[in-house]
Amino acid sequence: MGPTLFVVAGEVSGDLLAAPLIDALRRREPRIRVVGVGGPRLAAAGCELLHDSTTWGVIGHIDPLLRLGTYLRRLRAVEADIRRLHPSALLLVDFPGFNLRLAERLHGGVPIVYYFPPLVSVRKGNRAARVAHLGMRLLATLRREEDAYRGAGADVVLIGHPIIDLALPRRSPEQARAAFDLPADAPIVGLLPGSRRQEVRQHLRVMLQAAARVLAEAPEVHFIIPVASEALRPAIVPAVRASGLPARVVDEPYDAMAVATLLVTATGTATLEAAVLGVPMVAVYRLPWPGMFIARRLVSVRYAALPNILAGREIIPELLQERMTPGAVAAEVLSLLRSPERRDSMRAALRAVVNDLGPAGALDRAAGEVLQVLAGGVA
Predict the structure, then answer these.
(1) Share of residues in the chain with pLDDT > 90 (%)
(2) CA-CA distance, 330 to 313, in Å (whole number)?
(3) All domains of the chain in start order, with CATH
(4) What's the whole-model pTM score?
């Protein structure tokens, strides 16, 4: 009988991040039993799902307050499952609003590893010290995060960013164009509204309106929309049909991103994925204004897109809040389509960002850290 690992991976992005790590763990320790919270990818990796978190995603600081009752019920249920099962270790994946509360409740009762711990280098206040106090093994993916946590006295290990291992298209650009029924030489714009339903609601309509304006001026352009999760398809497909835009809605995100001439993408992990794939982009995001007001008081950096944060300058254009309009998005897209030199310059800047993400093998390094905790390497 092998060790038991309880995983808590909230929403779509956590499911995407956790599943490859569980695969890496199983390759090194086939006897491990994995149970917990996640989505279809974690289930496919062999996790016994006690709770499907696909629809648990929230954005900003207001939405969680509106769902406080549901949030507390889920928190109590997951905590009860962990106490009932007495796992050898707890693996938290991203989802800080939920996972930090869980870690506080279970502090001292079970060894905890936090994969993709809360970002602290971009925030004001003492969040790093608060996390450090919980005594978890933190697997930092960015050097600036490791530095911030180490300065606060946390047990932190820099593993590098697994996006280097994960953002790999399965097909060549030529094969992808054929698979998606796209012309061999037409410019392609990818639209990535986000991995949460709220993000799709906030972003997709504006993206489709912008795409219509682009198409009016550049009818040779084709559009592709990769679906981050099957749970989002019902929100995306009807909106695309209602818009009348001839866009392909597809399931293979990395193939779709890699084949694109450029992307319009919500800020977040997708911007780093695009950077690894070397695809120029326009970053967008829109929060309800109370949420943005709170976010601006918490954040200590000027930028929202991760490549810009890591570069310390705007290498990809950001259209946030009131600046995210169909006209502004269309203008940026047309400008990039008409300027190969600007796209080349952006690719070069993105390569420099990717070089700072560390070497390949982050997943194996993360798996090694988890196995060490499972073996009793952390009290």
Answers:
(1) 79
(2) 22
(3) 4-162+361-374 (3.40.50.2000), 173-355 (3.40.50.2000)
(4) 0.88
